[in-house]
Amino acid sequence: MKSYGDSNSGNCLKVKWVCDRLALPYSWIEIDTLKGGSRTPEFLKLNGWGQVPTVELDDGRTLAQSNAIIRYLARGSDLVPVDPYRAAQMDAWMFWEQNTHEPYVAVCRFHIVYLGKAVAELDPNLVKRGYAALDHLERHLAGTRFLVGEAFSLADVSLVAYTRVAHEGGLDLDRYPVIRRWIADVERVLGLPPAR
Amino acid sequence: MKSYGDSNSGNCLKVKWVCDRLALPYSWIEIDTLKGGSRTPEFLKLNGWGQVPTVELDDGRTLAQSNAIIRYLARGSDLVPVDPYRAAQMDAWMFWEQNTHEPYVAVCRFHIVYLGKAVAELDPNLVKRGYAALDHLERHLAGTRFLVGEAFSLADVSLVAYTRVAHEGGLDLDRYPVIRRWIADVERVLGLPPAR
Lengths: 196, 196
Known about the structure:
Two copies of one chain form a homodimer.
Chain A: E1 2-5, H1 10-22, E2 27-30, H2 41-46, E3 54-56, E4 62-64, H3 66-73, H4 84-114, H5 124-141, H6 154-163, H7 177-190
Parallel strand pairs in A: 1-2
Antiparallel strand pairs in A: 1-3, 3-4
Helix pairs in contact in A: 1-3, 1-6, 4-5, 4-6, 5-7
C-alpha cells in the first residue's frame, strides 16, 4: 500500500499511526501541499478532492478522508469496538472531530505553522471555537480513560492528532490537565514521543 | 426509540428518512434549536454537545452526530455496502459531507432561513466554498448513478439532506443538471416530495 501524506499534518499522521500500530506494510510518499503537491494532474487522478491523506491499495484502488481510511484499515482490529453501540460512539467522536474540532483546532495551527501568522493575528472566532472543542474534551475525559470508555479506539487516534499539537496553534494546553493526561496515555499506546 | 430533532434541519431529517426507509419505529420529538431547546439542562443530559439530532434508544442509551446515528441504525441493511472498500467509500463521502459540504452549503441556508439574512449579506467565502462543494458533486455524479456506484447508500442520504435545499441558501441549483437528476433519484428512493 502507498500512503500519500504530509508528515506535519495530523490528518495524515492518523494513517501512519494506525498502520504502525497494526503492523500494516506501507510506503510513505511525502506530499508538499503548500507547494501544490496535492493539486497536480497526477495527484488528482488518485484523489479528485486534491487532499491528503490518500492511500493507494496494492490493487490500485484509492481511498480518501483520514477517518474513512483508518476505519477501513482498522476494520476487525482491536481499534474498533465489536459492540455496535460502542462503535457508533466511536463514529460520533470521529464525525465531531471533522465538524467541530479540526476546523478550529487544526486551522489555528495551520495559520501559524504553515502560513507563518502570529497568534495575535488569528481570527478570534477560530480561537474561541477551538477552546470550546477543548473544553468539551476536558469535560468528557474527566469521566473516562479513553474517549469510548476504558478501551483505546480510533476515536482517540482521530482526536489526538490535532489536540496534542494544539499549542502550536496558540491554544494553551496548560489549561487542560485531563486532556494532557489523556494525550500522554494515547502517546504511550501509539509509541509516540511526547509532542510537548 | 425517541428521535429528537428540528424538522427543518437536514442533519435531523437524515435520521427520520433512514428510520422511515427501514421501517424502524420511533417517536419524533421536535426541538426548537433557535429557542435554545438543545441547550436546556434536560437536553444536555441526553447530549453533552447540545446538538440535534439525538436519539434515545429504548434502553435509555443515547447517540449523537447525524452520520454516526444513521450508520448505527442502518447497520446490516441494504443502505450500507457489504464490501468493505465500498463501505469505506461511503464513509469518505460522509466525512467529506461534515468537513467540506455541510459547513458551507448548510450554513448559507442557516443564515437565510433561520437568521433571516438576504443572499447579498452572505459571507462571499461561504458562498464560494458552497459552490466548490456542489461543483465537486456535479463532476463525481456525472459518472455514477449514486455516490458509491449503482447502489443507493447512506452517502446519498447524508449528502442529499442539504444539497436538495441548497437553493434556500442562495446557491443556484439550476447550474447543476447532474445533481438535479441525482436529487430526483434519491427523493424517489426515499419517497420524498420534490424539494423544489
